[in-house]
Write a structure and sequence with these properties.
Number of domains: 2
Shape: globular
Cofactor: Zn(2+)
Mean pLDDT: 88
Low-confidence stretches: 1-30, 127-131, 442-447
Number of strands: 12
Order of helices and strands: HHEHEEHEHHEEEHHEHHEEHEHHEH
Distance between the termini: 25 Å
CATH architecture of the largest domain: 3-Layer(aba) Sandwich
CATH superfamily of the largest domain: Zn peptidases
CATH topology of the largest domain: Aminopeptidase
Structural class: alpha/beta
Strand order of the largest sheet: 5-6-8-7-9-12-10-11
Helix content: 25-40%
InterPro entries: CARBOXYPEPT_ZN_1, CARBOXYPEPT_ZN_2, CPAH, M14A-like_propep, M14A_act_pep, Peptidase_M14
Keywords: Carboxypeptidase, Disulfide bond, Hydrolase, Membrane, Metal-binding, Metalloprotease, Protease, Signal, Transmembrane, Transmembrane helix, Zinc
Pfam families: Peptidase_M14, Propep_M14
Family: Belongs to the peptidase M14 family.
CATH class of the largest domain: Alpha Beta
């Protein structure tokens, strides 16, 4: 695979300068998002029965709120928490309605603006470092991440190859790192993508952490050396490049793709609802202004289309698909669009159990695991269902820390422990690919 953008990039950008001196992400006051979240609150609501569920759905459907968990009003169910970000002008009204209906709730973020400022500190005063001192324990802008990718490719040619699989809606390149010894082109492979939803910043942080740890430990870690010798890892640190850039510069809680207006006068699509398996059914929305908007047709988003095309081309070798999300502390596998057991359930369940056990061994953090439909909720258009249906036998979605105390504002102080434990889980899944697990080929002929 050729690195088709390398020459033009080097001609126009001096990499160390980008990493050390870049000011694109922090014009004066940009880190405060113009104080747009001052007084906003995040409510945790727990309806206890079906009647309360219906009442809550009616309340929230008529009030402009940002769903953190679940993704939309249609997915609310009893005895499952509902986390919603409420604008300051609506907090008093929502509190009064919940009290009137005697629905249990608490406010776990009382001033969202202050929590944003705590999460990353003042970006404009934070030191930018050279690649040799690249700080993996802070969140990075899209420009910094892409510069880091070029530098990893340049400094580790024996283990890293970088290439583009296409361009985003707004014309940004979609870069992927291939990690592993390339002497065996027919090796099994693992796909890992991060940053599908723009506001889930811990995802891109993990993808960078994984690459750094894999390279730095190759010489002394026999497990990692074996993995890189026998497997290829395709790492996409930022799947949703337009949305991530927008969440960094303009709207911290932006979820979807795109930042420019398009013909629907709303912006973007939920990239995880744009896949062909049961497209735009349960858990997705056909309304362009909703966070779970599935798009005008399957694979309408160039990012989704590019990844789907790449995986179809390499499906004979890609044995595991891993998508990194936040938050909930879960490890999910198919099916997500229906209540049914996958044909190779025992193999996938065993891999998931090994992964969460390895994760727990780091800091004692517990993850739930199981089919997405029963562990989380039924949702259509999911990438793990698509990957599984396209012959990738191990398809997983991680929902990283935490369970709601910080939500999407996971502090930078928790990047290291979160990535350390997740690294163990991914290594466990990858190690399992090197062992045989019997499955029913009559029921699952494309494995």
């Amino acid at each position: 695979m050729a690195l088709d953008h390398w020459s033009s990039f080097r001609a126009s950008v001096l990499l160390p300068c980008v990493i050390i001196c870049s000011n694109v992400l922090c014009p004066a006051g940009a880190y405060l998002y113009s104080n747009r979240y001052a007084g906003d609150q995040v409510f945790r609501i727990t309806p206890s029965n079906d009647e309360e569920v219906q009442v809550l759905k009616k309340i929230l459907a008529h009030m402009k709120v940002d769903f953190w968990q679940p993704n939309s009003v249609s997915l609310i169910c009893h005895n499952a928490t509902v986390d919603v970000h409420v604008k300051r002008n609506n907090t008093r009204d929502l509190r009064a309605r919940l009290k009137q209906e005697d629905i249990d709730y608490r406010v776990f973020i009382s001033n969202l603006q202050k929590e944003i400022e705590k999460q990353t500190g003042y970006r404009s005063s934070r030191k930018r470092r050279s690649e040799s001192q690249y700080d993996y324990e802070v969140y990075h802008s899209l420009e910094e991440i892409q510069s880091w990718m070029f530098e990893m490719n340049r400094t580790n040619p024996d283990l890293v190859e970088m290439f583009s699989i296409g361009k985003s809606y707004e014309g940004r390149p979609l870069y992927v790192l291939q990690l592993g010894k390339t002497s065996r082109p027919q090796k099994k492979a693992v796909w890992i993508d991060c940053g599908v939803h723009a506001r889930e910043w811990i995802g891109p942080a993990f993808c960078q952490w994984f690459v750094k740890e894999a390279i730095s430990s190759y010489q002394y870690d026999s497990v990692m050396r074996r993995l890189l010798n026998q497997l290829n890892f395709y790492i996409m640190p930022v799947f949703n490049v337009d949305g991530y850039h927008f969440s960094w510069t303009t709207d911290r809680f932006w979820r979807k793709t795109r930042s420019k207006n398009h013909k629907f006068h709303c912006r973007g699509v939920d990239a995880n609802r744009n896949w062909k398996v049961k497209w735009c059914d349960e858990g997705a929305s056909s309304h362009p202004c909703d966070d779970t908007y599935c798009g005008p047709f399957p694979e309408s988003e160039p990012e989704v289309k590019a990844v789907a095309k790449f995986l179809r081309k390499h499906k004979k070798h890609v044995r595991a698909y891993i998508s990194i999300h936040a938050y909930a502390q879960m490890l999910l596998y198919p099916y997500s669009y229906k209540y049914a057991t996958i044909p190779n359930f025992s193999c996938v369940e065993s891999a998931a159990h090994s992964a969460v056990t390895a994760l727990y061994s780091a800091y004692g953090v517990r993850y739930r695991y199981g089919p997405a439909s029963t562990t989380l909720y039924v949702s259509s258009g999911s990438s793990i269902d698509w990957a599984y249906r396209n012959g990738i036998p191990y398809a997983f979605a991680f929902e990283l820390r935490d369970t709601g105390y910080f939500g999407f504002l996971l502090p930078e102080s928790l990047i290291s422990p979160t990535c350390t434990e997740t690294m163990r889980a991914v290594k466990a899944i990858a190690s399992g690919l090197l062992k045989k697990c019997e499955t029913d080929r009559d029921r699952f002929p494309y494995i």
